[in-house]
Amino acid sequence: MRIAHPPPPLGRAFGSLRAPAFRWWFASQVLSASGTMTQGVAQSWLVLKLTGSGLDLGLLGSCYMLPVLVGGPWAGALADRIDRRRLLIATQSIFIVSASLLAALTWSGAVRVWMLFAIAFVTGAVSAPDSAARQVYVLDLVGGRELASAISLNEVVLNVSRVVGPAMGGIFLATLGIPVCYVANAISYLPPLLVLLVLHRKGRLPAASQASGTGVPDVTPEPASATSAAAGRGRRPRGQVRAGLRYVWSTPVLRFTVLMAAASGMLFNLGVALPLLATRVFHLGGGGYGLMMAVFGLGGVAGAFLAASARGRPGGREVRLLGALTGVAVLATAAAPDAGLAFAGLAVTGCLSIWFIARANTLAQLRADPAMRGRVMGIWTMALPGASPVTGPTIGLVAEAAGARAGFGLAGVALLVTAGVGWRALADNGPTGAEVALGSGGYPAMS
Asked: Are 425 and 299 within 8 A, CB to CB?
């Protein structure tokens, strides 16, 4: 019998890229996420240009996130019920239309702030099912064996876009104007749409089958629960959303993983806490704030690679420890006596937080019953980033009442509290539930 030696850490980090379909999907996501960040810069600038109101900036974010918060469970049920590839084709197409509409309105001079609110609401409503389907689609592409690598590389995409997108937005604003930012975002959705239309045709097995180089799938068919879920697509039994919520709440590992994700949303809502910390505590200008964002993003890239290169599947102990360490890093950054230490703290915080959230996301997907996976990811999306309409104002209120340091540090307190409350529930390292079923066919035996 041939003994399979574990790949080196770098090989594990990039293992999902052995699947041709995921390689193309990953490359397309780098462009798409950067385009989204580019539009975000233009959107904020346009609101300030139209009204000059910080309140309107907050309302714009709420218009986008409110449907994500409220519609997350329904979006997950939709991702369980219909073909995820077709769902993603529809969402990418709508995103192209919305960005193009914003470009046309801005170019014509007809744009008004209420139009921005309305389009943000529609975009958020589409983003809820898009996010749930996108997360499970990664598993469709690479199989369970490379899921940790794929999720972590998606975090790389997000953090690279935090550096590239705002830089592109700033250049376009200074040279070509606001509408070009919207055009760039519309164009950025074309590569993932092309991947969905051309490289993963209906009826073809995802290219994860060829990841091992043998032409034999690296995963066997999912257990009966997944088969029945696939067979049930198109039907709409009652109570799907309630069943998903009950399932997550009654499964301790999932319950506390989702709660910790919601707590981390206070940290990832950088547009509220970080500008206040930069200006009111360290007296930095716009350039300093932008550099803080970039430092956090670069730390996040490192954290994503650490998550991707980790050996084996994540366990509850690893997730709770990383969550607690992230909370400590947030509090240390908030208490930094000078800007230099704050920058160092942000780099460490970015690294730990993305390492934590990537492993927590992987744990949630692997522990979820395949028939419930879309709903679990919909609830995950409701928690992160969907809870922003709640966590954002909370951070602002704490910052106004107790200072910018307290506002930024609130995320650290929330992470430590949720990690502490769920410490016993996250005490295991071994596979359970659906993961056992997946492991019996989808994973190599591990000793």
From this structure: no
CB 374 within 8 A of CB 136: yes
**Reported pTM:** 0.67
Q: Could you tell me if 241 and 375 are in contact, meaning their C-beta atoms sit under 8 angstroms apart?
A: yes
What is the C-alpha to C-alpha distance for residues 305 and 291, in angstroms, rounded to an integer?
Answer: 21
Distance CA 328, CA 114 (A): 41
Q: Which amino acid, one-letter code, is at 431?
A: P
Tell me the two tokens of residue 7: 């790949």
How far, in Å, CA of 166 to CA of 194, rounded? 25
Q: Are 261 and 422 in contact (CB under 8 A)?
A: no
Residue 427 has a CB neighbour count (10 Å cut-off) of 13
Burial class (CB in 10 A: 0-12, 13-18, 19+), 186: buried
**pLDDT tier at 222 (50, 70, 90 boundaries)?**
very low
Cβ neighbours, 10 Å, residue 286: 11
State the virtual CA torsion across 48, 46, 399, 299 in degrees, nearest 10.
-140
Three-class secondary structure assignment of 395-434: HHHHHHHHCHHHHHHHHHHHHHHHHHHCCCCCCCCCCCCH
- What is the spatial distance between Cα 219 and Cα 208, in angstroms, rounded to a whole number? 9
Report the C-alpha gap between 200 and 59 in whole angstroms: 38
| Domains in the chain: ranges and CATH | 11-201+239-442 (1.20.1250.20)
Reported as a single tens digit per residue, the pLDDT across 402-417 is 888 998 999 999 999 9
Q: Are residues 59 and 118 in contact, defined by beta-carbon separation less than 8 angstroms?
A: no
Neighbours of 285 (CB within 10 A): 9
Q: What DSSP designation does 446 have?
A: -
Structure tokens at 410: 């609130």
Separation of alpha carbons 324 and 332, rounded Å: 12
How far apart CA 79 and CA 138 sit, in angstroms, is 13
CA distance 382 to 410: 20
User: How far is 73 from 235, CA to CA, in rounded Å?
Assistant: 17
